Amino acid sequence: MGDVTGSGDVQAGLARLWLRHRQEIERSVDEITACAGGTDDDTDIERAEVARRAAHRLAGTLGTFGLERGSQLAREIETMLDRRDAAVATDGERLAVLAAELAGCVDRFTPPTGPVADGRAARTSGGLAAGRVVGVVGLSAATVREIAERAAPQQVSVQLFDDAPSLLAAVGEVDAVLIDLDAVSIADLPGGTWPAETAPMVALSGGRRLSDRVAATRYGARRYLQAPATAEAVLTSVQSLWSPSTRTGTVLAVDDDPVVLDTLRELFDDSVKVTAVDDHEQFWMALEQHAPDVVILDVDMPNVNGIELCKVMRADDRWLQTGIVFLTAQGGADTVREVFAAGADDMVTKPIIGPELRARIASRLDRTDLHRRLAETDGLTGLANRATARRSLERLTEAAWRSGRPLAVAVIDLDHFKRVNDAHGHPAGDEVLRRFASLLLTAGATITARWGGEEFVAAFADTTAGSAKYTLQRVLSAFRAEEFVTADHVTFSCSFSAGVAELNKRWGVNELLAAADEALYRAKHEGRARIMATHE
Amino acid sequence: MSSRRVLIIDDDEGIRDVAQLALELIGGWSVTTAACGQDGLEAARTERPDGILLDVMMPGLDGPSTLAELREDADIGRVPVVFLTAKVQAAERSRFAEMDVAGLIAKPFDPMTLAAQIAALFGWET
């Protein structure tokens, strides 16, 4: 087991541990700095002891993370403090110099991340190794640190590269890249397109033109973030790149060959749960019990054949979306036709070739995940769609009744949106909707949904109508300040109106929405570009 | 290679984390950690490790005292121990060497070679 994991995993793990422990390490450095700057009195003796312990600790730790110079400095400081009572006056200045150098080298240190042999498989192996690395170019060290602090609890570490070529050289070692296109121009980026299969890219840019987005997307950006973006938004965007392959999938396999079942179990790491059964009776029970994302069937099985099982599954609504992959020894044209006619999604011929089967099943898992997400989100904006939002609203309302806590709901409508579409075309209108959606997300509502057309709904749990209104005012100011530029360089801007209602005891979701709607109507009537609450 | 079980006893969380990472990934061993001598002895009794990595300088029960208690235990008294120490001066080295440990590893250690060093001291095949 030790022979298959590359040193890159250890280094990626170290980078993550560095982030996790950096605060304590910096605290120790501060303790030494405080002592170095101190004067000669009683508190100073205490401080010196604190600093000596801090130095001892850093001497033992820093080198382990790869910061050998830090260990040397800390060791020297520790030795000095050990005999401080004798030589304090002469050593004071030297101590300050060492402390400053130590602080500087801890501050600048980013742990190296080594080459990763088979990153995905190895990194998902669990334990301390399950971390991801984001390579960053063009952002300030302060921003990177802010992102890193948010990312660390989620096992994501962030590494800043000097320029795009050095990031490209290390692209195999990172799981995603974040490039600030305002600092790095696409024209200066290496190669024709970004190797997005190796490390998908998020582009961050203040550019408001559609052409900026198109250029970034053409270069290979999977996500485009409008700058300035919060660290949270950056992290969410980066993580969305990974979501299809990081989700846990459940695979149910039915095969009468124990070798096949064992192979299947070994083929997947912890991210995929494989349940294997060897006859059809167990199969139905397991199907009900595990509700698998993908089912693997064999064409030839005793008693009942896989094609029959497949047909029966497809005849039941519950299993319509489930991926079905066939394993078969005979790949003849008749079998192929029969298998797909029965409703299978894919077919793999025996003998099983591990990587191929794994790839095919992984693709099925992604697909079922995609189906689910498509069913629940609005394609244009990525927000929850109406049906999903409605279900969530029902739950929120019930929770608010039970807890007695307030719940505010806003119905939002973009002003004169039809004019935008008419004057600037539908692509411009879509851009406005997308942009508004991402601004609305910054309000931090519990539910943010596209209700339909240019109408949106945001629900704020544990929030009064007044407070929700205040939050939306900020969104409105930001939205009005946005300048949209069409492909023909026409600049325009937009606004929205909103009505906010707060849940009261007699209301259900419909009454709540109706009250917000009524307030929206008044906001429109009063001249648009405003937010009104029901009591106004 | 059968998976070895190693117990790390160190009061520094950073050291525990890094050592655990290195031994799990490079050694392929299963690792348990404890933050003080007392917890370490508990863990040794329940986990029955094949080897123990023991920090010398810890508040409370320090490395040598933990080792002394361990050696008196009928069940786990024979588990091999390696000391982890930040200070290795000649006098200390010989003092530690008399204490029935398989060896000393200096802090800071190199995570890339830690497993190999431990395996060599314990005489484990890698």
Helix content of chain A: 40-55%
Span between termini of chain A: 68 Å
Low-confidence spans of chain B: none
Alpha carbon gyration radius of chain B: 13 Å
| Largest beta-sheet characterization of chain B | 5 strands, parallel
Unreliable residue runs of chain A = 1-5, 114-130
Structural class of chain A: alpha/beta
| Number of DSSP helical runs of chain A | 19
* Multimeric state: heterodimer
Helix content, binned percent of chain B: 40-55%
Q: What overall form of chain A do the CA principal axes indicate?
A: globular
Q: Counting H and I runs of at least 4 residues, what is the number of helices of chain B?
A: 5
Q: What spatial order of strands do you see in the largest sheet of chain B?
A: 2-1-3-4-5
Protein described:
- The complex is a heterodimer of chains A (536) and B (126).
- Helix content of chain A is 51%, strand content 17%.
- Chain A has helices at residues 7-36, 42-61, 68-82, 84-108, 119-123, 141-151, 164-169, 210-219, 231-246, 258-267, 280-290, 306-314, 333-341, 354-376, 386-403, 417-424, 426-441, 465-481, 509-525; strands spanning 132-137, 156-161, 176-180, 201-205, 221-226, 249-254, 272-277, 294-298, 323-328, 346-349, 407-414, 447-452, 455-461, 484-485, 491-492, 496-502, 531-533.
- A five-stranded parallel sheet of chain A has the order 2-1-3-4-5, sandwiched between helices.
- In chain A, a hairpin with a 5-residue loop joins β14 (484-485) and β15 (491-492).
- Mean pLDDT of chain A is 80; it is low at 1-5 and 114-130.
- Chain B has helices at 13-27, 37-47, 63-72, 90-97, 111-122; strands at 5-9, 30-34, 51-55, 81-85, 103-106.
- In chain B, β1, α1 (13-27) and β2 (30-34) form a beta-alpha-beta unit.
- Chain B has a five-stranded parallel sheet, with helices on both faces.
- Chains A and B meet through α1 and α2 of A and α1 and α5 of B.
